[in-house]
Specification:
single chain; alpha+beta; 2,3-Dihydroxybiphenyl 1,2-Dioxygenase, domain 1; five-stranded mixed sheet; four-stranded mixed sheet; globular
Length: 132
C-alpha cells in the first residue's frame, strides 16, 4: 500500500490552489474547475471544491474544518522559505524553530485554517532519516 495523496476540500478552490502554488512553487494541474493537484516527488496534494463532496456522499467532508492534521513539506532551507512567505502567509503559528527530533520547522495555516509544516532536517539523525 502506498500513500498517494492528501485531499483538501474547500469552498474557494481558486484561492486555495493559488496559495499552495505560492507556498510550494509547484504549478497545479487542473483536471476540472473543481479539482486540482500539486504533485511533488514524494506525493500529491489534491484540492477539490465543495461541489465534489456530493460524489462521495453528501456531508461527508466539510471545508475549513480540520483540527487534527498537519500537512508537511520538507524544504531545503526553512529560514529562507519563512523570509519568502512573510508577505503571503497571514497566519503563522511559529517562526522557524528547531524541534527536539532534529527538524527546523515553520508552522502556519492556509486560508482555510489547515496547518502546514515546512521543515528542514538539521541534526545528524534527522538528516539521516530523510536521506534518500
Amino acid at each position: 500500500m502506498n500513500l498517494v495523496s492528501i485531499r483538501l476540500i474547500t469552498a474557494d478552490i481558486q484561492h486555495l490552489v493559488g496559495f499552495y502554488e505560492q507556498v510550494t512553487g509547484v504549478e497545479a494541474a487542473w483536471a476540472t474547475p473543481d479539482f486540482a493537484e500539486l504533485t511533488t516527488s514524494a506525493g500529491t496534494l489534491a484540492i477539490g471544491s465543495t461541489r465534489t463532496v456530493a460524489l462521495f456522499g453528501a456531508g461527508s467532508a466539510r471545508p475549513a474544518d480540520n483540527h487534527t492534521a498537519i500537512i508537511e513539506f520538507q524544504v531545503a532551507d526553512v529560514d529562507a522559505d519563512y523570509r519568502r512567505l512573510r508577505n503571503t502567509v497571514a497566519d503563522f503559528v511559529n517562526e522557524p524553530t528547531t524541534m527536539p527530533w532534529g527538524n527546523r520547522s515553520l508552522l502556519f495555516c492556509d486560508p482555510d485554517g489547515n496547518m502546514i509544516n515546512l521543515f528542514t532536517p538539521v541534526t545528524a539523525s534527522a538528516i539521516a532519516k530523510f536521506a534518500r
